[in-house]
Amino acid sequence: MAIEPGTELGSGGALRVPRARVVPLSAPPSSYTAAVERYLTGAGIAKSSARIYRISLTTWGGMLAGEPAPTGPARRGAKPPVFPVAAIDDPALPEVLAELAAARADEMDADTVNRELSIARKAIGWWQRQGWISGDPTIGIERRPAPPDRTKALAENQIAALWRLDVALREKTFWKMLYESAARADEVLCLNVEDLYSQDKRGKITAKGGATERIHWQSGTAQLGPRLIARRTRGPLFLTDRKAPAGTPTLDVCPETGRARLSYRRAEEIFEEDTRLLANPLASSEDIESLDGWTLHRLRHNALTHDAEGMTSTPMLLARSRRASVRSLERYARPGVDAVARHVAERDPAARRRG
Asked: Which of 65, 103, 173, 294 is deepest in the core (most CB within 10 A)?
């Protein structure tokens, strides 16, 4: 049997075909730092997220160079060592990286470690697609199990602080509608102006599986909605600030303004960014941009939890959440911090005697 030139014999006489050479889409950057900047500008990372991505990739830069990553205050202003991005393909790196990542995970909370790992993998994947590197040294590094969140429902003072934020009318209306309707964020973002029955405080949505269902809201949304719609009579309810790019599906473009439908990713980024201070009230101003805010799902969770705290019946909770299983309501039936505090205070023997 003839063996092609360049083909090697592996153990047991098996043929080992050399890895195909990857042709770069563009000239490789001169350093890891330059590769990070090329990724942030070329991969469509939102400006609101670029700072967090840069901090995470700077942290991982040290570990990709085989050095321990900085922790605590040392993270601020830290710069990665200067090394070529091609060094990421060093066959010895995965083992070294696994040890460094494990050591860092012992010093940091699971959410931060997992977020940084996710960002590093996204960047590495993008660099692979550019042809600058061929391997992924993070393979084998597992996400850290995060302790369960037992306080998904926001406290009353947190909800009040959320409504006091100085944000755009679009965000005020969107957040109010999520909270008052207990609807999923992607369902609300798919609403069109013609799907609204404003006088009845309800709207027609397409739910999971394609079924047509109704969501209902309260006075907060009813007061903000007309201002957001202005004189529009059709098209997406929640719009981006700019004209829709070429190729955007017609259903996602407002025929009257030419702007595109607001995406879930962008809506989540805005909410997360705007709520960082509320989610981390004790954080310093230097650290706040590297921390997480709240997720949009918490508004839906909050509405259903508050309904359960108010002794709303199970059939009504099922109808409001639009779920078919009683068991699926368990995650929302956990009373929040304020409800537990009231329960304890109402049963305080000393308080009853004083009354």
From this structure: 173
Radius of gyration (C-alpha) of the chain in whole angstroms: 26
Q: 122 in helix, strand or coil?
A: helix
User: What is d(CA 146, CA 167) in angstroms, rounded to the nearest whole number?
Assistant: 31
| In the predicted structure, residue 315 carries a pLDDT above the cut 70 | yes
DSSP 87: G
The closest alpha carbon to 35, from 54, 19, 17, belongs to 54
Q: Whole-angstrom Cα distance, residue 310 to residue 98? A: 49
CB 215 within 8 A of CB 225: no
pLDDT at 171 over 80: yes
Exposure b/e, 157-172, CB count within 10 A at least 16 = b: ebbeebeeeebeebbb
Q: Are 206 and 251 in contact (CB under 8 A)?
A: no
Residues 202, 206, 211, CA angle at the centre, nearest 5°?
A: 110
Tokens 């309501």 correspond to 329
Contact 293, 278 (CB under 8 A): yes
d(CA 257, CA 243): 8
Coil/strand/helix, residue 147? coil
What is the number of residues in the chain?
Answer: 355
Predicted local distance difference test score (pLDDT) of residue 282: 82
As a whole number, the mean pLDDT across the chain is 80
